[in-house]
């Protein structure tokens, strides 16, 4: 029977620790009623409270969707659940006993899964009834469940196909997870490879005498790994926890597995734990903050040069076993192939760790997964690697990597040998392909694309855009809908991008009935081109800045008046001008974790492209009175409002209540396209109404009350907002007039030293200056 997508309305989670409570919080944020059980109700309630405090819920009020109770007395609360997740201690006896209890109360067809990361499904269901085994899975979430997209899914020979289908649909569409099917093996995919990498990273550093700082510099940016690097990640996970994770793998894997070559707890780790050095949670591990926070540190370069800079961190030196000022090695920019080939401490360490890690990954397919692309997806999403192990091998050159492995005396995995000069990935027929094991050999197959997903990399392989410039492209995404993709650095609005927007608005009716604006980057748009604006300000180029401001206003007004629907699809940051763009489109589809806001005050400016007027209109449309709407906009613009998620954006009227919050970012563009198709039938552009503005005294009094808490330049911005947002409380004022007021004020403050200082500071540090 095919699963039709009926939504799970109630879920149960047993175990209110970090993972269990986090899973419950994420389910609740996604609109599901949840029962959270622990040994007693108080423990469950404390788990919810921790999630509220740590941001596990997308909105604090979503905690009301969680019912907390005791497993001893309230197991019956699970009887109408659609899915029950077990997240208790990693002991097979405890889990089996719990599953037997669940089986006595669950309704027929209720899915039961374990969040275990170490115990195979075959062992969990060994004593289970036929009915329970058919509904059982392993659903391995990553921490924190709200933010980590990866979910490793393990099914067994007794699991019903319908169970897998139903669970996959729900976790994908409702919880927003990327599902990676795994074999029923210890550690599954990400932790099997990740724990080996961590064990090798520490072990090889100690063997080669590599400092923690150099190890982290190598195992960071050069390979596209997070900046925590190697020793920093040990600190983050916990020096007390890492040995147990590695040891559990070693106990579960055969004696010949490569992970057995490394000590789970080297003598250094034991010595640190004896001193209470457990990592970040204990205030110190391999790194800590110095006592006076004013330590001067030496920064040796890759080739022996050095420089000195202020730093407040110290390093626990593995050799002297003493704290010393933290060093900051500077590695020259080079690709990974050149790095591992370099005869330097950094190069030798990179080869020692990554040759073994990549070879280990290549040897594990098809043991842990059917395909290399599944492994790469798991490592990208589970460990935040920019490229997975097979993608990294292709960067090194698969044939060259295999040759050096052999010269180094390391075994060359069968799949790696088969990759040869062609590598693991290629393309054919407009599709990306991957080398997949097949019998005793390997074949190239298309990389599977989930149904109802529109991905820009696939579009780029499959064909050419309708038109493209240095700043943007227009793509055909089917169903008579075009996709407007921004292509500037950080997708900032430059004069070239504004020109491309105007061209798109002309070209779209010739090819399409509707338009989606979106991209696949980490930033939807960081706003206006601050570098260009600062340069014009410093040159006192008043005509140039006035023209840039007018171009933005005219372009966004044309966007709002387009004779076809435009749906904004923001999957990531939409700040400043990026937010103003979304305030002008017909409708918005926002990924639930996208941040959106009008942050111009943080660089000493106001939203200059109609954002003030459009946000004010959104408040009026939401039913606020003219006075309350003006107060909300005044306060938000002055503080540089940012909504950290889609639901917060709705609450703050940055998107409409009718706009869509999309859980799975991979489905964002497809969702926006389908919505654009619906809107296209009988579409007419909205004519923005005029709005009534309150008396000047309303906002002037608020500003006066805040004077002591505002910086000098914020007082200037506040005074400008008072004039912009004030009227006579009776006469309607057009949005164009409000924007004209902003323009006049903008062109005054942009040439002040205080605004220039704020822009320069933001460009240099990424942080706002309060001057």
Describe the structure.
The longest helix is centred in the N-terminal third of the chain and has 19 residues, at about 190-210. Helix 13 (about 345-365) crosses helix 15 (about 390-395) and helix 28 (about 710-725) packs antiparallel against helix 29. The radius of gyration is 28 Å and the shape is globular. The protein has about 775 residues and is α/β, with parallel strands linked by helices. An 8-stranded mixed β-sheet has the order 3-2-1-4-5-6-7-8, sandwiched between helices. The chain has 3 domains: about 10-180, NAD(P)-binding Rossmann-like Domain (Rossmann fold); about 190-335, N-(1-d-carboxylethyl)-l-norvaline Dehydrogenase, domain 2, CATH 1.10.1040.10; about 455-690, 2-enoyl-CoA Hydratase, Chain A, domain 1, CATH 3.90.226. Strand 15 and strand 16 form a beta hairpin. Keywords: Fatty acid metabolism, Lipid degradation, Lipid metabolism, NAD, Oxidoreductase. Pathway: Lipid metabolism; fatty acid beta-oxidation. It comes from Acetobacter senegalensis. It catalyses: a (3S)-3-hydroxyacyl-CoA + NAD(+) = a 3-oxoacyl-CoA + NADH + H(+). InterPro entries: 3-OHacyl-CoA_DH_NAD-bd, 3HC_DH_C, 6-PGluconate_DH-like_C_sf, ClpP/crotonase-like_dom_sf, Enoyl-CoA_hydra/iso, NAD(P)-bd_dom_sf.
| Helix proportion range | 40-55%
Q: What is the end-to-end distance?
A: 65 Å
- Gross morphology: globular
Radius of gyration over all CA atoms, rounded: 28 Å
Q: What name goes with the CATH superfamily of the largest domain?
A: 2-enoyl-CoA Hydratase, Chain A, domain 1
Helix and strand topology:
Elements: E1 10-14, H1 18-29, E2 33-38, H2 41-54, E3 66-70, E4 83-86, H3 92-105, E5 111-114, H4 121-124, H5 130-134, E6 136-141, E7 150-154, H6 161-173, E8 178-181, H7 190-208, H8 212-218, H9 231-237, H10 242-252, H11 267-274, E9 287-289, E10 295-300, E11 306-311, E12 313-316, E13 323-325, H12 336-341, H13 345-363, H14 372-383, H15 389-396, H16 398-407, H17 414-419, E14 425-428, E15 431-438, E16 441-446, H18 456-462, E17 467-468, E18 472-476, E19 481-486, H19 495-511, E20 514-518, E21 523-525, H20 530-538, H21 542-560, E22 566-570, E23 573-575, H22 577-584, E24 587-591, E25 596-597, H23 611-621, H24 626-639, E26 642-643, H25 646-651, E27 660-662, H26 668-680, E28 691-692, H27 696-706, H28 712-724, E29 732-733, H29 735-749, H30 753-765
Parallel strand pairs: 1-2, 1-4, 2-3, 4-5, 5-6, 7-8, 19-20, 20-22, 21-23, 22-24, 23-25, 24-27
Antiparallel strand pairs: 6-7, 9-12, 10-11, 12-13, 14-15, 15-16, 17-18, 18-19, 25-26, 28-29
Helix pairs in contact: 1-2, 7-10, 7-13, 7-14, 13-15, 19-21, 20-30, 22-23, 23-24, 23-29, 27-28, 28-29
GO molecular function, one term: (3S)-3-hydroxyacyl-CoA dehydrogenase (NAD+) activity
Keywords: Fatty acid metabolism, Lipid degradation, Lipid metabolism, NAD, Oxidoreductase
Protein name: 3-hydroxyacyl-CoA dehydrogenase
């Amino acid at each position: 029977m095919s699963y039709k997508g009926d939504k799970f309305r109630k879920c149960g989670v047993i175990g209110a620790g970090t993972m269990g409570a986090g899973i419950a919080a994420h389910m609740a944020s996604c609109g599901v009623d949840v029962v959270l059980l622990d040994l007693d109700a108080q423990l469950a309630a404390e788990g919810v409270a921790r999630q509220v405090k740590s941001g596990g819920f997308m909105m604090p009020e979503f905690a009301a969707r969680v019912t907390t109770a005791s497993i001893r007395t309230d197991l019956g609360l699970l009887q109408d659940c659609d899915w029950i997740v077990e997240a208790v201690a990693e002991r097979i006896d405890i889990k089996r006993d719990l599953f037997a209890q669940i089986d006595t109360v669950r309704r027929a067809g209720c899915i039961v899964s374990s969040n275990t990361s170490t115990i195979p499904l075959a062992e969990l269901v060994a004593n289970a009834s036929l009915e329970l085994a058919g509904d059982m899975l392993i659903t391995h979430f990553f921490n924190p469940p709200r933010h980590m997209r990866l979910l490793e899914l393990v099914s067994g020979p007794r699991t019903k196909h319908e169970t897998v289908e139903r669970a996959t649909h729900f976790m994908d569409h409702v919880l927003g997870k990327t599902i990676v099917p795994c074999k029923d093996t210890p550690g599954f995919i990400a932790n099997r490879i990740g724990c080996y990498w961590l064990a090798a990273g520490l072990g090889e550093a100690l063997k080669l005498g590599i400092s923690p700082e150099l190890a982290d510099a190598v195992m960071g940016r050069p390979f596209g790994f997070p900046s925590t690097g190697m020793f920093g990640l040990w600190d983050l996970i916990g020096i007390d926890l890492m040995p147990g994770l590695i040891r559990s793998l070693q106990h579960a894997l055969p004696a010949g597995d490569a992970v057995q070559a490394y000590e789970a707890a080297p003598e250094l780790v034991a010595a640190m734990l004896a001193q209470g050095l457990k990592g970040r949670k204990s205030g110190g591990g391999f790194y800590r903050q110095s006592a006076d926070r004013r330590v001067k540190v030496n920064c040796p370069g890759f080739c022996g040069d050095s420089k000195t800079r202020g730093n407040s961190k110290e390093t626990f030196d593995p050799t002297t076993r003493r704290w010393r000022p933290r060093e900051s090695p500077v590695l020259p920019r080079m690709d990974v192939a050149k790095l591992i080939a370099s005869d330097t401490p950094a190069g030798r360490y990179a080869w020692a760790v990554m040759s073994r890690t990549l070879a280990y990954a290549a040897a594990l397919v098809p043991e842990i997964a059917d395909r290399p692309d599944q492994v790469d997806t798991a490592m990208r999403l589970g460990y935040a690697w920019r490229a997975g192990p097979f993608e990294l091998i292709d960067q090194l050159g698969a044939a060259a990597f295999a040759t050096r492995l052999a010269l180094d005396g390391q075994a060359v995995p069968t799949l790696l040998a088969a990759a040869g000069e062609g590598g693991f990935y290629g393309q054919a027929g407009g599709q990306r392909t991957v080398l997949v094991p097949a019998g005793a050999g390997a074949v190239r197959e298309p990389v599977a694309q989930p149904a109802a997903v529109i991905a820009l990399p696939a579009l780029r392989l499959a064909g050419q855009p309708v038109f493209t410039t240095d700043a943007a492209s227009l793509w055909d995404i089917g169903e008579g809908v075009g996709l407007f993709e921004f292509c500037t650095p950080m997708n900032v609005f430059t004069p070239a991008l504004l020109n491309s927007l105007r061209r798109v608005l002309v070209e779209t009716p010739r090819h399409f009935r509707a338009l989606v604006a979106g991209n696949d980057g980490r930033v939807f748009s960081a706003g206006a081109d601050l570098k260009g604006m600062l340069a014009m300000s410093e040159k006192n180029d008043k005509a140039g800045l006035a023209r840039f401001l007018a171009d933005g206003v005219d372009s966004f007004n044309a966007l709002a008046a387009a004779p076809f629907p435009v749906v904004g699809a923001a999957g990531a940051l939409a700040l400043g001008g990026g937010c103003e763009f979304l305030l002008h489109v017909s409708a918005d589809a926002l990924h639930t974790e996208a941040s959106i806001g009008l942050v111009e005050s943080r660089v000493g400016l106001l939203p200059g492209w109609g954002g003030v007027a459009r946000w004010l209109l959104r408040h009026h449309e939401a039913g606020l009175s003219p006075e309350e709407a003006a107060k909300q906009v005044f306060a938000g613009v002055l503080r540089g409002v940012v909504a950290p998620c889609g639901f917060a954006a709705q609450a703050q009227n940055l998107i409409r209540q009718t706009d869509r919050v999309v859980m799975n970012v991979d489905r964002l563009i497809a969702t926006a396209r389908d919505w654009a198709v619906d809107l296209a039938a009988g579409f007419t552009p909205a004519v923005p109404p005029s709005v009534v503005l309150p008396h000047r005294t309303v906002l002037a009094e608020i500003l006066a009350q805040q004077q002591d808490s505002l910086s000098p330049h914020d007082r200037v911005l506040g005074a400008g907002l008072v004039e912009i947002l004030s009227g006579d409380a009776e006469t309607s004022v057009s949005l164009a007039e409000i924007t004209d007021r902003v323009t006049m004020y903008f062109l005054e403050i942009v040439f002040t030293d205080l605004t220039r200082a704020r822009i320069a500071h933001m460009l240099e540090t990424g942080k706002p200056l309060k001057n």
